[in-house]
Amino acid sequence: MTRHLPGIIAAITLVAVAVLAIWLWGLGGADQVLRAAAEAQREAQNAMARGLRALKGGQPGAWWGLMGVCFAYGFFHAAGPGHGKLVIGGYGLGRAVTLWRLSALAVASSLVQAATAVLLVLAGVWMFDWGRERLTATAENLLAPVSYGLMALLGLYLLLRGLRRGWRLWDARRHSHDHHGDHGHHDHHHTHADHHHDHGPGEVCSSCGHRHGPTLSEAENLRSWREAAAIIFSIAARPCTGAVFLLLLTWRLDVLGAGVAGAFAMGLGTASVTLCVALLAAGVRGGLLARMMSGDGTGGARIAAALEVCAGGLVLALCLQLLLRSI
């Protein structure tokens, strides 16, 4: 029973994902979720308007009340398309990322997205004298397609990376089957004009006293930080229209500071949902890999490659769908 447990868990997970996908896109579940989120957003917008009136009137506690409403708006708004839930979740499912780094990535992407809204409104009203319609159109018709396109590219990157890893595993397995048994190897060495290098990548050469390349951990960290920057930029490229609306209102009411704080409160509300998705994805990945690791680790490696392919394909397909809807 224990031997078959990893396969059972993997099968249950795949069935659960398939059922969820059928409900979301086959039975109208996605529309139900979006309608419920839109209704909650409308209620939050009405509460936001009341909070702004209370703040303008100098009522006690109005500031913190407005911040709470903005946080709630961001939370409910995160149920809609975009905001990086899909990208963060897919990245956590497809890549071996530590929980703290994935959590920081989820929070940072939401806060940078809020900063994008602040910069857009401040530049629009102070430099170009744009109104609400122009700012909203810029966010929805220009920045949203850019964001969805970048997210789709990230999905394609995960997909191709997973396929490459899977191909290498398959090729190595085929090669080991074709070349089993003892083999005679020719001993040879490479001579260099000045000195030889009997060291691994990133180690200091005993002859010349310097390194000839980064270590594996340094290369992995560099790639991880580049991936993190790409993810944050792709998510933050599209500012939240609710934050744009709030900033315009507070600018006209001469309480812009409250609008800036409210935009970041919305970002924290969005981050709370994105963070849950990220932790869930990382937990699913870690649980599956821990149970699928065989003696030589190839079982876990194959599952990791499959997860990366599935996550990348899902991100690519859904972000392309969002991109087509936005153009």
From TrEMBL:
Entry's family note: Belongs to the NiCoT transporter (TC 2.A.52) family.
UniProt GO cellular component terms: plasma membrane
Compartments, record wording: Cell membrane
Organism: Tritonibacter mobilis F1926
Signal peptide: none
Transmembrane segments: 7-26, 61-79, 99-122, 142-160, 228-249, 255-282, 303-324
Gene Ontology process terms (BP): cobalt ion transport; response to cobalt ion; response to nickel cation
Main location: membrane
GO MF terms, alphabetically ordered: monoatomic cation efflux transmembrane transporter activity; nickel cation transmembrane transporter activity
Record's function text: Efflux system for nickel and cobalt.
Topology of the protein relative to the lipid bilayer: Multi-pass membrane protein
UniProt-annotated stretches for the region Disordered: 178-209
Protein name, per record: Nickel/cobalt efflux system
Keywords per UniProt: Cell membrane, Cobalt, Cobalt transport, Ion transport, Membrane, Nickel, Nickel transport, Plasmid, Transmembrane, Transmembrane helix, Transport
PANTHER family the UniProt entry points to: NICKEL/COBALT EFFLUX SYSTEM RCNA (PTHR40659), NICKEL_COBALT EFFLUX SYSTEM RCNA (PTHR40659:SF1)
